[in-house]
Amino acid sequence: MKREICQICSNDIEPYCDYIYDDRYGYPKNYSLLKCKSCGHVVVAPKMTHNEIATLYTEYYPRNEMPAEMNTKSIFASKYKIYLEGKKTLCHYSIPSKSCCLDIGCGFGESLLYLKHKKCDVYGVEADENVLKMAEKYDLDVKIGLFEPADYSDQKFDYVTMSQVLEHMLNPIETVKGIHDILKPGGQLIFSVPNSQSLMAKLFKRKWINWHIPYHQQHFTKDSILVLAHKCGFEVESIKIITPTSWIIYQINHLLYYPSQGKVSVFWSYSYNNNLCSKLILTTTGIIDRLKLMAPIARLLDLFKLGESYVVMFRKQ
Prior knowledge:
Blueprint lengths: L12 E9 L8 E7 L5 E4 L4 H10 L12 H4 L3 H6 L15 E5 L5 H8 L3 E6 L5 H6 L4 E3 L12 E7 L8 H11 E12 L4 H6 L13 E2 L2 H10 L2 E8 L3 H12 L19 H16 L3 H9 L5 E8 L1
Parallel strand pairs: 4-5, 4-7, 5-6, 7-8
Antiparallel strand pairs: 1-2, 2-3, 3-9, 8-11, 10-11
Helix pairs in contact: 9-10
């Protein structure tokens, strides 16, 4: 039998969860989770191909159902609101003005719009072709496809950001090494990833919101992040834990409307917005969000290092 090893530290991995599936958008296959005995890193099995990933995002991820508009009021939030809502998991909020920046997995381009406002020279890359309509509308420089360092061989960046993106990558070490190559000396990689050792991950097990199978291929721990930095030639500037306040609300609704395999979740799909159940969920979520009722819980989780997301800064040596 072929020995299974960790993608991050190359030590042995073992079964962790033997049956888990897409509990948001209805992708029909089921998967397993494997966990490293040394660094605790968790991966999805069987591993998907690049073509399967591209099909997954274009056909199942619901951006093609979303309205082509940005909430600019939310993008340009105050520092207090950013803290209260745990928005620092969006890495562009850590970039200083007049920097040269690449955002990998830029989505609809909210980060690019924010950084353009700060007079940054900013570029984006996004696998989902459905974002083209937004990039064209707001005149954003977005490459559609996967991140390829060779596409940026003629320029160097002060910062590269990935907000909740690295967990989607099939080969995180290859990705981070590629980022190292396109950063200026002393340049920074800033990224956020879910914390697979969070309190909610331990409480809700396979129904934890951030397994998000099969979209999330990698599930990080602090130890696996430290190994990643060492292998890719980076110094670790900081590792913080920050919980987006809305994620607590989402976890509750996720549990209430957990779908069977191959079914689309009522809570997560935009196509269900017109039915009464969905309207009640979204209305309730909106009220709780506006009142910031979950903010004290989120900040307490972070204080005790039990929160939902790592925010990491690497510096090129």
